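User: Quick sanity check before I run a bigger batch. Here is a single chain. Can you write out its predicted 3D structure?
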Amino acid sequence: MKNFLSKYLFLISFATLTCQGNLIAQDTQIQASAPSSVVIGEAFNYTISGDFSGDVVLPQVKGLKLVGGPSTFVSQQSSMINGRIESVKTVTYTYTFLAKEAGDLVFPPATVTSGRKVFKTNEVTIKVVNSRQDTQSGEKGSSSEVSTSTESVFIRQIGTKSSIYLGEQFVLSTKIFTQEALNISSFKAPGFDGFWRQELEGDNTAIQEKVNGEVYLSQVFKRDLLTAQKTGIISIEPADIECLVKKKVSQGRQNGFNDPFFNDSFFDRYENVPQGFKTNAVSITVKPLPSGAPAGFDGAVGSFNMKANVDKEKLKVNDAITVKVHISGKGNLDLLKPVKIDFPPDLEVFDPKTTQNLKHSDNGTNGSLDYEYILIPRHAGNFRISPIVFSWFDPDEGKYKTDKSAEFNFVVEKADGNDEAYITSPLASGNVRQTSKEVVSLAGDIKFIRITSPELTKIGKTVFDSGLFYASFLLPILFIISLVIFRKERIRRNADINAVRNRKARKLAEKRLKNASVYLTTNDNGFYDEILKAIWGYLSDKLGVNVSDLSREKISAKLQSKEIDSSIQISLWELLDDCEMARYASGLGESDKQKIYEKAMALISVLQEKIS
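Assistant: Done. Predicted structure follows.
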């Protein structure tokens, strides 16, 4: 009997412990997990798993950005115990975050409401590092394991040169290396302060390439042709790229079964996960041009040839003669100004017409520029145009070079009789042209009968006694003095190149804006190129800054020295940024172009009033 009671009490105790264990096991357990180490700018998953049905409230964590989720996965595990089938349901919430700051981040407990009960998850600590080399392999604890290499995707900026001369060109390529399927969703280009930029086309296809023994698909998706505008060590900041990376997420272990069947890759799924990348920064050393620039040098850098000719050797007064200058080669052709020619002072010279035939490629800017100068002689005689000189700096050879044309001589003859000045006689009806000879012959014809009283003078008083007679001697002298003063002032003003450029700045800008208006109703992005040339050309001429020295910093300093209001400067930079962006954007309509055109006209008018 005693032994029976002992066995009975033992069975009761065992059953009680078993029930208590089952009750403890059936308590709701909610677990939070995340990788122990992540890289800045790369996506990672934060998961909450447990047997619950309700709402999840995430804590706020500084330095993290929520970019996706929650995605929900429900699994159910069934088992048979002592002839009874028991089921356990597991609900998994997955959130995708991007880390923005390096350091140790503490993810406080999340709040889960299930029915009338409120639960707290565990606290999760995440180490955020700057590069993949700092991460530790074999991360554990995530309920969804992303099968991607720690160096499966990276992006680089690659320059064709690291050291160049002022005004020299080079190509900056942005290249992606990937072992994952991805799409680029956004691209934020770096600032190119100190460079003139021309966008080129990227590659259409990807190629296989080995990096450190690993095989990647690589593709240059963006190229920029840059021309140095200032000297020194210039850093091109990293570009920001966001991609949708197709990542494989293994779900087999979440179903609760340890059967290898359910751990097969068949049950894996793929997600497009947003992931941010930064390229490397690129430093370029820009060397100043050597001293001792020859005559005819105005900032041209590259390899060029120059030819010049005139279309006539003999003409008449008031006829036009054309001087043509042809520059061809490779270099900063976009930034060249018309060649300066020493024309005789007795010729009327019109602004040159510029024709561009340029091609931008990986090899730089190739093509030609044609300048046509129209001259009209107002006097007969023999005229001579001095040899036209064009100089440039060749960066490959590191020295200046010069092309020089022959001198041009031409003869201007007197105009024909039909081109003489004429007077319209009051006796002729209508607009009848008559030469001076015809007017003289009319003077010898029958005169009109005088019908008014004559003016009488006293006897002994002659014209020599009047003040008008003596004044007539002074007038020619005063006229000659005025003419000499005017001539000297004109020579003085023309000798000041910057003053001449200042006076003509608005006229040239309006001419370039007129060229831009041609593109208003077309889809050609040449409109924005013409607007940019008009604004930069106006600032160069008005402020007396050479094209080779143009930069935003220098223009800002010049505007501040002339006490130009900061709001005007802000409008100027906004206009330039809008044009730069519009050159590569699509979908801009005629109304957008019209607004930019009007803004450019208004800005030039304001600057014209403010800058003396």
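The helical segments are 2-25, 436-443, 467-495, 497-517, 526-543, 552-561, 566-584, 590-610.

User: Great, the batch can go ahead then.
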